[in-house]
Design brief:
This protein is of the alpha/beta class and 233 residues long. The protein has six helices and eleven strands.
Amino acid sequence: PYVLLKTAMTLDGKIASYTGDSRWITNEKSRKLVHKLRSEMMGIVAGIGTVKADDPMLNCRLKSSQQSAVSSQSNIHQPIRIIVDSKASISLESNIVKTAKEYKTIIAVSQQSTDNSQQSKIEMLKSFNVEILYCEEKDGHVDINDLMIKLGEKGIDSLLLEGGSCLNAAFLQAGCVDEVYAFIAPKIIGGEHCKTPVGGPGIELMKDAITFDKVEIEQIENDILIKCRVESF
């Protein structure tokens, strides 16, 4: 699948305050553009950390007046929600699970991390209409390359990656990101331990940095949107 990584950060590169609050970093117009992106992609991917922290819906919430800008059809396309959750630890009370009968939902779990004690949880998730996708494991987490293969086999050809930072790092490290949309808001929140868009161990030397080209810069009211593609794409 083609993967578009979307992130929103402050001027000092943070995606949340030290308390974890992230609503809202960008302005309303930028957020509407994100919902337009959701309507154009077959799937939307998030990690279990984001789900636990924000309890998101991960659906497309464009208003009816905006439908013509997205589709001539009366119904706005809703992306398949894909949650990367190695140990199937998602809460049954989460918005994702509670709305799985309304929005197609896949939870990707690690074959090696799910044992007999978790099978009852998995069966309960299935009862909520959640589809379980078993993937190979790498470093204790879902193997991103195997996930991509299995999603491709399901006919999912485009994904909007909405992190958080650990999952963004895993996709980048696996070489599975094709394009990046980075929204930057003119705000500074500080905090040396506040999360940034990409986590993980990071690189050792600058020469090993992932580089981009075909850079476009767009101003959305006070926000800045940087669009770029991975050079190897």
